[in-house]
Amino acid sequence: MTIQLHNAGKRYNRDWIFRNLTYTFQTEAYAITGPNGSGKSTLLQILSGAVSVNEGSCSHILNNTTVTADKVFNYTSLCAPYLELVEEFTLTEFLSFHQSFKPFLGGLTIDFIIKKIQLEHTKSKKISEYSSGMKQRVKLAQCIFSDTPAVLLDEPCTNLDAAGIALYQELIADYCANRLVIVSSNDQTEYGFCENVIDITAYK
Hints:
This protein starts with a strand and ends in a 5-residue tail after the last strand.
């Protein structure tokens, strides 16, 4: 997938978050950096199709065809601290529910995914009983294992311990090749694999 920004700008009330941003994201890994509150998460939401720009344009192109705004969701996966899980579900129920509208990568079963994120011993517990680190593993799973050409990650190691960070890096290495990956972060632990780094403060 290719995502193209052309003279893009986003504002809240009268305050511009960024302006005059022209950039093309192709099938590589990108990091969006900048101080807290600088608009990294907002830009990632725009790239996911969840938020629109106030000026300029954001286009999603797949196989030389522009994806309409109402279909972008089908081709992007987003993991972010502000996204909520359905905590009344067990892990198995949640992944089954998610798979019903966004299939997982070919050949991967729910049991395999649960084992991969090392939560097989808790798969029958409600997610509401999970620790914050366990919930983050679930968020990473539903994002990275979804069969989408674009994977968008906002501070993906939030609440993860050393083992969780190692798992994140393993999932990126094993399942994100030949996909567009965009990471919003100031922590090289999260984006050290990215070939391209964009400082959002350059577009204020």
